[in-house]
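Why should sequence recovery work at all? Because a backbone constrains its sequence more than one might expect. Tight turns favour small or flexible residues, buried strands favour hydrophobic ones, and helices have their own preferences. The token representation captures these environments compactly. In the example below, the structure is given first.
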């Protein structure tokens, strides 16, 4: 049996996918009994040098040829406009689709999955989260019998590289970003990564799969790492914590917390040890307990590996008639909404003068909002704060027990106005993920 595969977008991932389909075609045929034949690859520019030479007879500049000739259409263009219309057009024509486009699926996934369901075609999206890590497949198949309780993910390699450099070498955010750029881990415009959007796209997709309905992307709480200071990384380290950009999806009663923000994890936790450009996802199910998936979250070959796994999956299950598909939409009928009032531990850092009574006045306000203190760290080091000249200013760190986000924000609003607090307080959430 032969299945015809076409790719639109021959860039980083498209080239890797074409290469894998051509170089490992016999291997895949031996394993599955199906011949997955690459029939067409569309790209707007064939003059650019690529890591793999796509045979001339497969090339086109017209994506419609791919739609015409393929059973499975692989969208690897990226972006949300053309990619969306391409996928919907493929679906209308009864083609199965594979995509790595997390941005598109986070914002328009519901529409795409529902349309595909109506038309009886499949959308493969393993490569949209965690690059080469088969985490979508794990949620859909390996963990299918579980009620998912929580997902914690390090889902963006660029930010994990930057935070690892800051933690291990004591460099600033800007220095670490520059190094990430030099090594090709960060884009010229790194906003999607460092401002947390890429991780937010991915956790939105995972949440939908885990909890059975699409959550509006604009309601996801997103805070990136651009304002993370070396001082907090250092002070956290002294307290036994490692800073990560953590994507969290957690079921709490009839609500789901979906959030991405810099997070302190105890340095002994498995996720805290995930360093450099690596990604990892911890999934907690009611029967399985906690499981962790680790690997390369991006790059041409790891991502191609995930794309090809979807192609084969669709080929084997659909064309052999053994398809049981868990889609990210529509299986959970209860009303799950996004919870904004998180319940978490907090690291709070205040810049204060080094004199008696300061801690007492801050802790009084915290107590007023039912926030209980777990630990206090005051350093003798002096902070330079623009515009503040009166006496030495030192960092005062307070670790809280679990508290509600709303109470923390209200307390900080009051503390900020205390005469002893000379700069905006720093707030970093603290999680126990494993
Ligand atoms: N790179 C990764 O490691 C990675 C990992 C996971 C997921 N992804 C996702 O995979 C997708 C592709 O990413 P990528 O890194 O491979 O991007 P890329 O290198 O920019 O490749 C996209 C390719 O599509 C071409 N293209 C643009 N418009 C087209 C059109 N109308 N018809 C045909 N081709 C067109 C682009 O050509 P021009 O450059 O000439 O415009 C480019 O060659 C994105 O959704 C991305 O988020 C990437």
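From this structural description, the recovered sequence reads:
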């Amino acid at each position: 049996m032969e299945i015809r595969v076409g790719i639109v977008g021959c860039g980083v991932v498209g080239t890797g996918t074409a290469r894998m389909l051509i170089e490992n075609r016999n291997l895949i045929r031996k394993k599955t009994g199906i011949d997955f034949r690459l029939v067409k690859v569309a790209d707007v520019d064939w003059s650019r040098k690529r890591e793999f030479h796509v045979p001339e007879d497969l090339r086109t500049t017209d994506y419609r040829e791919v739609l015409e000739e393929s059973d499975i259409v692989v969208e690897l263009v990226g972006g949300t406009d053309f990619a969306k219309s391409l996928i919907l057009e493929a679906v209308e024509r009864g083609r199965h689709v594979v995509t790595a486009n997390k941005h598109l699926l986070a914002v328009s996934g519901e529409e795409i999955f529902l349309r595909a369901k109506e038309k009886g075609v499949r959308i493969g999206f393993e490569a949209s989260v965690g690059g080469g890590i088969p985490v979508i497949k794990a949620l859909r198949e390996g963990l299918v019998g579980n009620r998912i309780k929580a997902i914690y993910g390090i889902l963006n390699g660029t930010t994990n590289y930057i935070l690892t450099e800051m933690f291990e070498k004591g460099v600033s955010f800007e220095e670490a970003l520059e190094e990430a750029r030099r090594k090709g881990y960060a884009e010229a415009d790194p906003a999607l990564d460092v401002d947390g959007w890429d991780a937010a796209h991915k956790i939105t997709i995972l949440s939908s799969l885990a909890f059975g309905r699409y959550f509006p992307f604009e309601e996801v709480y997103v805070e990136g790492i651009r304002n993370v200071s070396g001082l907090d990384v250092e002070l956290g380290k002294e307290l036994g914590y490692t800073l990560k950009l953590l994507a969290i999806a957690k079921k709490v009663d009839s609500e789901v917390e979906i959030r991405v923000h810099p997070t302190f994890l105890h340095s002994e936790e498995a996720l805290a040890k995930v360093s450099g450009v690596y990604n990892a996802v911890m999934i907690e199910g009611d029967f399985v307990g906690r499981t962790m998936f680790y690997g390369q979250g991006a790059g041409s070959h790891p991502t191609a590996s995930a794309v090809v796994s979807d192609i084969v999956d669709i080929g084997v299950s659909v064309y052999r008639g053994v398809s049981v598909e868990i889609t990210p939409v529509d299986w959970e009928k209860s009303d799950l909404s996004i919870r904004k009032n998180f319940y978490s531990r907090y690291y709070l850092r205040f810049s204060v003068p080094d004199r008696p009574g300061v801690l007492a006045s801050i802790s009084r306000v915290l107590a007023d909002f039912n926030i209980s203190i777990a630990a206090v760290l005051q350093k003798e080091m002096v902070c330079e704060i623009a515009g503040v000249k009166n006496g030495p200013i030192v960092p005062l760190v307070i670790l809280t027990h679990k508290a509600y986000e709303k109470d923390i924000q209200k307390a900080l609003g009051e503390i900020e106005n205390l005469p002893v607090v000379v700069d905006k307080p720093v707030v970093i959430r603290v999680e126990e993920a494993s």
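A few observations help interpret the result. The radius of gyration is 24 Å.
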